[in-house]
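Sorry to interrupt, but I need a hand with the structure work. I would like you to pick a protein and set down its sequence and fold. Please put the record directly below this note.
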Amino acid sequence: MIATIDRTLSRVPMYRLMSIALGVILVAAIISSLAGALFYSPLSLILSAVVAVLSTALTSRLFALIFRSRVHGESSIITGLIIFFLMLPSVEVGGLLVIALVGFFAGASKYVLAWRGRHLFNPAAIGAFIVSLTGLGAAGWWVATLPLLPFVVLGGAAILWRTRTLIVPLVFIGTTYLLVITPLLSFGADAFATAIVSYPILFLGMFMLTEPLTLPPRRWQQVVVALVVAVLFALPLYLGSYLSTSLSFGNFYLSQEFALVIGNLVAAAIALPAGARLRLIGSREVGPGSLEFAFESDRPLRRRAGQYAELHVPHRRADARGERRHLTVVSAPESSGRDITVAVRMPERRSSFKSALAELKQGDDVRLTWLGGDFLLPKDEKTPVLLVAGGIGITPFVGQFAEAAAGGRDVTLVYRASSSDDLLYRDELAAARAPVVVVTRDEPTDLPFGWSWQPDLAAAFASLASVGSRTALLSGTPTFVARATGALRAAGVKRIHTDRFSGY
């Protein structure tokens, strides 16, 4: 079941999935309006949505020209739709102009309020916040209504499953509900229902707080941001009348978008985007249909083995997957403070990103916009480790395997490939001089010293002594991860950390 969901969602590019989820909520809103379940008329919904999307898209295109950058059309649509759900729908010229103004500030913020290739604020939130400061209008967050609740939950769940960012909304939603419900208890037993229906907690937590471009790279950092936003979200309920008399300044007041904007600032303060300019110094084939790209950074990079890099490779006619991609760093951190190496599969039908990456020449520049991740070896070096890789999923383990073996850690690698010819980084793995169990259909005849072969994962895990006491790190496609997780559980392994290569 899990593998089926993973396969289905991984076929949909992330931007496209977000657009679909928001589009479904839009259609549900129009249908609810026609049925009389929403206060707003169908015409006001349609006009407001068109204005929000067009204003954001046109502004993004304008500032892309000014900053000599490329605009991602689907990203503009997503921002426009979020703005539509924040600002009160209207058929009046004044109301539509306010929505257009929010779209303008949102689109501009992606280029003006940016650092090393990444915008610092959620565009819809900062756009609504800036407009509120002008006194011309304020966000109504009308998406928080009972008829739209099921569609928000289902769409948000699909996005969280695809992005693997469940911990962030869980912390935010759980903390916010607790803080919001407490002051509402004095109004009776309906406090929980009121909090769910009347506050945009789910929408903000699932669709906005989880925006990858404004989240810090480590899980503990993301939890801190979620807690900050939750407290600021609920703070007006505790301040009551004190808020309007003592904490207001001009047109400023605490709001949901303000809470998210401050959360974005905290994220930047904790871990400013680790952007850098990367210059290609070489590329090579590391296996059938797999290419490695070695880059040199224009500044020292701090990273750990197993972390990922987000590369921005501008190119014409980018497809729905966009110009950015998360790629695991292959090279060990101690190899050089400026060197960074990634490897990718190159199928016959490639995404536009992979095609652009393959066409890079030595000396060409790309941008590193993010560096981080929590797919790391256990901190306690006495913890025995089992690394389980499937295909291209070997990439995070090349550096980790070498690091663990060099440090004297008890480490074993189980490597599943379709054939011995598809075993990537054989020389690098053999140099670690640690046990490797190869899982292929046919038994290889030329395995390095200390390596062994097994026909399937179950047999591989059964061949390991005290396998149940090990902490397993598991990397590969969603299908492989699901299958290997089941085999690990059957072998008695309890501590399993996964890294899925979804859609890449």
About this structure: The domain at 385-500 is CATH 3.40.50.80 (Rossmann fold). The CA atoms of residues 28 and 73 lie 23 Å apart.
